[in-house]
Specification:
Blueprint: E1 4-6, H1 18-26, E2 30-31, H2 39-46, E3 51-54, H3 63-68, E4 74-77, H4 87-92, E5 96-98, H5 105-121, H6 123-131, E6 147-151, H7 155-166, E7 170-174, E8 185-186, H8 189-195, E9 198-201, H9 215-220, E10 226-229, H10 238-246, E11 252-255, E12 275-277, H11 286-304, E13 311-313
């Protein structure tokens, strides 16, 4: 059996999963429940590995890492995002990279819906006031009949679009790869920003999308608009978002992701009363966790059997099977 390493299960999610127990029944695994504190520590953990199962996006796989790991054949990512991996370097060094698309789509979409309703109904603030003996009235917004603008029609974006339609919202969308067969009303990005009562972001972080939503985009939104981000923090110009919220150029925001994570204490976003914040947990439900971890291991077995699945980048001789 090839040497399999899990270098960064911190805080642990893989260790307690049924998928991991099944894996251990078939092969030994070098397992670490702390984050590597730098490239040197990561080298020590994976230097002789043929297969790495990556848990945390804070562990970065750079040109230097791939160059120092000549035996590495497969990097199996738990999750959809690949922004922590130099994909060009992986391909150059003959390393196949796989991920686990779609497994968290339902969980993340439900979380986006929760954030939207929490902002619209001012739930956190009302909860605090009632606990203090207050009995506030008014200032809640109804979403039925409003327009939901989806930016990005991947698995999560499509699922959230269905949830929005299910509560009576009109759904419009913009996507980088427009396809009328998706079944949603496709509009230009500017039209979406001007028309939507809720703007929800569902893009992958890449060189193309970093800073995609900034001052210009926030200025085009309605003053009554709500902005939702369950994708990645750096897709949004955080300073522009802060300014838009502080000046009430938009009504509010529901955010699960940030430029810096964990969000530092007393961060300016935490001081605003028109923001609902959660700790990058949209996809963290028992169902989504188990499905994603199991798929990350299934991708390993399929690769070793010569039929790689969910390939993001193919190494030498890799052939993808969907």
């Amino acid at each position: 059996m090839p040497r399999i390493v899990i270098p960064d299960d911190a805080p642990p999610v893989m260790a307690g999963s049924q998928a991991y127990r099944k894996l251990l029944e078939q092969t030994a695994v070098d397992y670490y429940d702390t984050l590597p504190t730098g490239e040197e520590v990561l080298f020590e953990r994976i230097a002789r590995a043929e297969v790495v199962i990556n848990i945390r996006s804070s562990t970065r796989f750079t040109e230097n890492v791939f160059g120092q790991c000549p035996d590495l054949r497969l990097l199996s990512l738990w999750g959809t995002g690949t922004d922590n991996v130099d994909l060009t370097a992986a391909a150059r060094h003959g390393v196949t990279v796989t991920n686990t698309p779609g497994v968290s789509a339902t969980s993340i979409a439900e979380h986006a819906l929760t954030l939207m309703l929490a902002v619209a109904r001012r739930i956190p603030r009302l909860d605090v006031e009632v606990r203090r003996g207050g009995w506030p009235r008014g200032h809640a917004a109804q979403m039925h009949g409003k327009t939901l603008g989806i930016i990005g029609l991947g698995a999560v974006g499509r699922r959230f679009a269905r949830l929005g339609a299910g509560i009576g919202m009109r759904v419009i969308a913009w996507t980088m790869h427009p396809d009328p067969a998706l079944g949603y009303e496709l509009v230009s990005l500017d039209d979406l920003l001007r028309s939507a009562d809720v703007v929800s972001l569902h893009l992958r972080l890449s060189a193309e999308t970093r800073g995609f939503i900034g001052k210009r985009e926030f200025e085009k939104m309605k003053p009554s608009a709500i902005f939702i981000n369950t994708a990645r923090g750096p897709i949004v110009d955080e300073q522009a978002l802060l300014e838009a919220l502080a000046a009430r150029r938009i009504t509010g925001a529901g955010l699960d992701v940030f430029d810096m994570e964990p969000l530092p204490a007393h961060h300016p976003l935490s001081l605003l009363d028109n923001v609902v914040l959660t700790p990058h947990c949209a996809g963290v439900t028992p169902e989504a966790l188990e499905a994603g971890l199991e798929l990350s291991i299934t991708n390993v077995w399929n690769f070793l059997e010569g039929r790689p699945t969910h390939v993001v980048v193919g190494g030498t001789g890799a052939r993808a099977r969907n």
